[in-house]
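User: structure tokens for this one?
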Amino acid sequence: MGVIFAALGLLLFAFFIRNAGLAEIAANIRRLGASFLLILALSGVRQIVRALAWTRCFDAQHNLRFRDALRAYLGGDAVGNLVPLGIVVSEPAKVALVRDRVPAESGLLAIAIENSFYSLSVALFIFCGAAALLLSFPLPSGLRMASVAALVSIVFVLGTGFFLVRRQWKLLSGTVDYLLKRGIGRRWLETKREPVRALEQRIYSFYAGNRRRFLPILLLEACFHLAGVAEVYVTLLLISDQPTTLLVAFVLESVNRVINVVFKVVPLRVGVDEAGTGMLTQVLQLGIATGVTLAIIRKARILCWTGVGVALLLHRGLTVRAVWQEAAIASTKRAEMDARS
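Assistant:
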């Protein structure tokens, strides 16, 4: 699947490069020049705040130092970017990289909690971006309908999530039980029932006993998105002849979040990022070449941080394959511990 999606993404990438004009894209990149280091620094803020948020999600019995969390975050993201279906490997890999600092069970629980806070912040950010797009810009009917659909979907998801946490509904374990009663995936789901139930209960216990941490964690996640807006704004200032605003940067970054969520299975969002961003900048009167260039610069930034992550792995005497295997072991150990509990 990873190979198929990558191939389709490359075809889409080539199409939009040709459509936008290779010469214009190259000129935009030359305009950026050494200022790319500034873009890289702004994107580094995002790595830092996510790592900090992770350290705030551990229970009182365990503590993870920020520097260890940051190294693991960069290494895990690097593994996720380099292997097929990295969305499955990335988070367990981060836990595997701090196995000598905190127990795997505690690390996996903390990463699950941090991801839930991150998902909430993404939903709110996309909601605000879609609202700003609808209220501030003239849109084609198709894009307007998509924006309205996004708003309605997010309201539904946030409302459901609120009641799930508030009433501690057993959605995940309940779904597993429902499928098992009907004989669907029995051999596979039987081994997942207890781990899912245990993880669900631990997440609810964290929310019930650590409410004072909610605001600091959410503020850190908000900083992640604000750094993304700043990155887009500075990039547009440097590569585009058209005047830009923070509102435009905000909308573009919110659409990038949508692309990341929907097309997570496409490695590096090759092609789909160029297509989505290019079409939106055309609607915003910035030109399709500006959007495609913005997406390419974003990929260059991802590759740079991936290189840093790989370098950190090599410094520890690890390889991408070894961390991938460690991630699988960490997930298996968690399942075994949860089943015993």
